[in-house]
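[audit] Reproducing an earlier prediction to check determinism. Same input, same settings, fresh worker. If the C-alpha cells differ from the archived copy the diff job will pick it up downstream; this log only records the rerun itself.
[audit] input (396 residues):
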Amino acid sequence: MFKKITLLFSAFAGMIVLGGCGENVDPQKLLREALGNSFTIESAKFDSTLDVQIENVEEANGNINLVFAGKGENILEFPPILEYSLGANFDLENAEIGVIAGEFELGFKIVEEAFFGIIEKFDLSGSPELEAAKPFIQMYSDNWYRFSLSGIPEMEEQMEQQKETQKEIVAIYKKLLTKNDILLAKNLNENGENFILEVEPNFDLIFSRDFLENDLIGATKIAIENSITDIDETERAKILAEFELDDETLDNLPEIRETAEQIWTLGNFKLEIQIDKNDRIAHSTTMSGEIDLAEFGKFFDDEDATGKIIFEITSTLSEINQPQNIVPPEEYIDFDPTMIFGMPMDAPMDEINLEDDLDYFDEEMIMNPDELEAMFGENLLEMELPEDAPIARPRN
C-alpha cells in the first residue's frame, strides 16, 4: 500500500521542482499562475544544490554536497538542447569502511541529437575498492565521448514519435498543475523584485480518491502510455496496472493522508518559492527538512532506525527565455554501445581480433593482464583472464 503512495509522492515531488505585501495579490492565484508559467520557459540557466548532513545514520557521519548546474534551450521539447554538469563533494566517515572524502564532476551535453559525456574530475579516497578503481576511472577522464542515434533507423523512428509524445505529456501535466491546487500558499511576503511564498502540500486534495483516480493517476497513465510505443499490448497492460490503486489503499486514504501530514510536520519540512513580480515565474525554490529516523521509523515499522538527516535543496533559474549558445565539443571520441573493453558484446570470444576489427585501437592502447595487475593490484583481478586477453585503453 505504502509503495504506491511513495510512487505518487515521487511524481508529485518532481512537479514541485518544475516549479504583508504592498501589492494586493491573492497568494493562491499567484502560486497557480507561477506554476502554469513554468511551462512557458523555453530556455534558461539553472543551478540546483543539495546539502545533506548525516548524523549517526547506520554508524555514518558527515556531509554530502551535490550540484546540478547548466543551461538549456527547447527545454520542453524532445530532445532538448542541454549543457550541464553534475558534481559531488563527500566528507563521510563510517565505522566499517572508514573515511570517504573528495569530489567528482561529470559534464554532459545533448546537442544535434547526440549525447556527449566527460569525466571532468574524479578525486575520491576511502575504501580499498575505491582506491583501486580510481586510476581506472581517471584513465577515461578529460575526453569527451559521443553517443549518437543517427544511423540507427529504429532509434530515429522512436525519436520522431517521442517528439510528438512530448507535446502531449507537457500538455497533460500543465493541465494537472493549473487545474488543481496541489500546493497551498500559507504565507506571502516581498523581497525586492520577488514575491516569497511559503507553501505546503494540499493533503486533502492529494489523498482524495477523486484526485488520485481521475487526475494524478489518470494523467500519469496517459503520459506513460504515450511514451511506450514499442512493446506489445500485454506488456503495456502490465506496466499500466502498476499505477492502479487497489481497494485496500483507496479505503485507507484518510489514514494515509493523516500519516503524510504528520510526517511533514515531524520532519519540519519547509518549501519556499520566490516568484518574479514581472514575469510571474518561480525563479527560486528551496526545500528543507530535518529527519529524525528513529521517529520516522515508527511510521514504517522500523524500530532499529537511528540517526538524523538534515537537508536543503535549492533550485534557481536565470536568463529565462534568452539564447544559451550550446555547441558540441570540438573534439570527442565516438562511443559504440555494442563494445565493452574494445570487444563486441555479441561476438564469440574465439573470433575476436582486436587489431583487425577495430582500426581506432593500436598496440599502445592495449593493456594486458600484467599491466592491469600492476596498476590496480590483485583485488580488482579476481576474475580469471586469458594470458593474451586484450583490454583497450582510451587515447589521451
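[audit] rerun output stored. Observation attached for the diff report: The longest strand covers residues 43-57.
[audit] end
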